[in-house]
Amino acid sequence: MLTEELRTAARALGEALHGNGAVQKYLKASADCEADPEAVGLEKRLLALYAELIARQQRGEILERSEIDAFNALRRQVYEHPRIADREAATTLVKPYFAEIADEINLPLGVEFAALAQAAEAKEKS
Amino acid sequence: MSTQPSTIPISPVLPAATERTAAQAARALGKLLFDTPEYQAYLQALNEVNHDADVQRLSARIRERNIALQWGKGDALEQQAALTTLEAELASLPSFRAYRQVEETVMRLFHAVDEAIGQAAGVPFAPSARRSGCGCGG
Q1: Angle of helix A4-18 relative to helix B94-121, nearest 10 degrees?
Q2: Are A117 and B114 an interchain contact pair (Cβ–Cβ within 8 Å)?
Q3: Residue pLDDT, tens place only, B4-29
Q4: What's this model's pTM, rounded to 2 decimal places?
Q5: Residues of B in contact with A13 (CB under 8 A)
Q6: Do B27 and A113 touch (CB under 8 A)?
Q7: Average pLDDT, whole number, for chain A?
């Protein structure tokens, strides 16, 4: 679907982003996180518990206070894990940088590139 | 004081150059996207719906109903039913259908471009770059 010109321009932007210090920090923090079995396990547990609780709520079930407390405790444990905390801290630096760069794409278009790109993805998934 | 020369990390690229290059590359990409036939068709369809009296009339009525719902005016179920009818009426208008179609094409194009950016960057671009919940520019 992409013309060679667009593909080249998109790749040039991607490569320039890859060279940014904040992106490098994020990639390293992300790789460190993925290499830590404890961090991976904690995140998996949190996601599984979240999915289970949401599904039960959607079926109309009222959750016990103790279940919500257990979920919050696990969530705290996840975000206090040093590897995960490092990755999250690195993410907070990447986001404003990417938003600033995206504004440069938006300027000639007059619409928000990232929102439309994601809307297509959401539509594909639904 | 040490007589040893200190180690200065050297790089052929100035630190600010990456930022400048990324901003320049983003601007160039935005201009290329603007010039694509898909985006030009989108702008034309947008202009047509903005000048279509039926679209404008229905859009205004939908806005009114939405405001009424947000402020809890009238019967909520009745307001919701009226809103659904108005939205279906709007969606059936030929100019609006044409607009939705080209908008979807532009969305797919942007998604493909975003994937190419993310692949080269090593990290997904759009999810981190997004500022709002709506891409309509409004």
Answers
A1: 50
A2: yes
A3: 545 555 555 555 556 669 999 999 99
A4: 0.79
A5: 22, 25-26, 29, 117, 120-121
A6: no
A7: 94
